[in-house]
Structures are given as C-alpha cells and as structure tokens.
Amino acid sequence: MIIRKTTLGILLSISALGMSPGVTAQTTDAFVEGTGRDTVQATCTRCHSATLVTQNSGSEEVWRIRVKLMQTAHGMPAIDEPTEATIVKYLATHYGQKAAARRAALKPEFMPKNPYSQEPAAD
Fold this sequence. Notes:
The chain is mainly alpha-helical. The protein is built from 4 helices and 2 strands. The chain is elongated and about 70 Å long. The chain starts with a strand and ends in a 29-residue tail after the last helix.
C-alpha cells in the first residue's frame, strides 16, 4: 500500500483507489504534441491528471522547482537527470511562463463603492 500525505493533510492511498504504481491516475487528458510528451504523460499522470499540470505555467526554473517539490513533499519517485531535463524542457516549452497569472484589474468605473471608505473630514 502506498500512502501519500498532501499539503492539505489529506491521505491518499493508491491501492485504496484500486491502482498500483505505474498505473496512470487519469489518461483521458492530453498534453500537447511535442518532444518529451510521452515522458511527461507517463511520469506526471501517475498521481494526477494532465489538466492539473497544464493549468500551471512556468519557466524551466519554475518547473524544475515543482518537480523537486513533487519528489520531496509528495512522494514522487526519484528520476534520473536526463528524464528530469526532458520533463522540465517540455513543460517550459509548451506551458511556459505566462505574462500574468491573474486577470487584469477592473477599471475604476466598474468597481463597486467601498462600504468601508471614509470621506475626508471637512475643515
């Protein structure tokens, strides 16, 4: 039985889900075509869907940090440097850093009145 503890403190038992190591969590999602796609698919979808990966973005440095985090905090098995480089390169190329991760701010005329604002005191 493999048990992993997530950052939320939720326990996930792979065997309780009827899965064994090496069986993908979800294979219906698709990564975009490109060099390294099969490696990413085989590695990342062992624990979560491709959608969870592809909703993120980042530079090679950011993706490398995420891979290391998966290994140190979430039980991802160790991978060799060439495999890690393939994964990081693919993800940075196809799911690279976005200009902004949040939507643009609303224009002032679309902002609601702040119920907590105080009018300046009259002299």
